[in-house]
Specification:
This protein is α/β, with parallel strands linked by helices. The chain is built from eleven helices and eight strands. The chain is globular and about 65 Å long.
Length: about 270
């Protein structure tokens, strides 16, 4: 007689996947487990782009790799797949929120798993906290990265009251200092810069409904509560917004202590 096995038996309560940026030690899967409930499983697939230089053209030229990675993760039983890196939503130049939402829907239907892009999760997260006006900490972003994601947020209907990066804020001297920090930390900016950048963004537009932080090199999850306590405004950050959207798709709550957006999950 064959051994009887409950078809509902699974090691994990949820199966998730991440598509991550080439040549970047992206700890999003590990960080996600800090906010996901116990029993969540995770896989990661790093995009392979030889000689990747972090330029928007590199992303536009390899946009189809997102689909290839999503297919692989879906075939590995992931139910929800999150793509890390906000700038992929606008890297092709002509893609706005409606086009990216449609792309994610089509790909999700094709692979049988929900596919989410970090840049568009910023839009959905801002809508969830009822924000209409925003102030943006573009952090370590290069000028074309900032222009692209800020334009994407404007196209989604948000009014930008202020936006700037670390150089605009006087927190680093120039682009060379950004490069030095990135080399020393493997693109893992220190907490004091993350807190200062987002608090200063609020101070430059204190009437804004929400503070936006645009890049995954600022790993905001651990400091969002601090910033919200200092400013009294919700923070919608690239990392936390993606995790929020993934958990929301799974119908799972977030562990406490990670800001207003994630605390809204029940």
């Amino acid at each position: 007689m064959p051994t009887a096995v409950d078809p509902e038996h699974r090691r994990y309560r949820a199966y998730t996947g991440f598509v991550t940026t080439p040549r970047y030690f992206d700890d999003s899967p590990q960080q996600f487990l800090d906010v996901a409930p116990s029993g969540t499983g995770v896989l990661q697939r790093v995009l392979h782009v030889p000689d990747y230089q972090y330029n928007l053209d590199d992303r536009a030229d390899n946009f189809e790799l997102l689909e290839e990675a999503a297919v692989c993760l879906a075939q590995s039983h992931c139910q929800v797949i999150g793509q890390v890196g906000s700038n992929w939503v606008h890297c092709q130049g002509g893609t706005g929120p409606e086009e990216i939402a449609a792309f994610c829907d089509r790909l999700s239907d094709a692979i049988g798993a929900r596919f989410l892009m970090a840049g568009h999760c910023l839009v959905e997260g801002l809508r969830a906290v009822d924000a209409r006006t925003i102030t943006i900490a573009n952090s370590y972003y290069r000028p074309d990265w900032s222009a692209g994601i800020n334009g994407y947020l404007q196209a989604a209907g948000f009014e930008i009251l202020w936006a700037g990066d670390l150089i605009d804020q006087g927190l680093v001297a120039d682009h060379e200092e950004k490069l030095a920090i990135e080399a020393a930390t493997l693109w893992d900016y220190p907490n004091h810069l993350m807190v200062s950048a987002t608090v200063m963004a609020h101070e430059n537009a204190p009437d804004a409904d929400a503070i936006v932080q645009t890049g995954a090199g600022f790993r905001m999850l651990g400091v969002i509560d601090t910033v919200e306590g200092m400013t009294g405004k919700p923070v919608v950050a690239s990392d936390a917004a993606l995790y929020w959207a993934m958990l929301k798709e799974l119908g799972l709550p977030a562990t406490p202590g990670h800001g207003a957006l994630l605390s809204g999950l029940t």
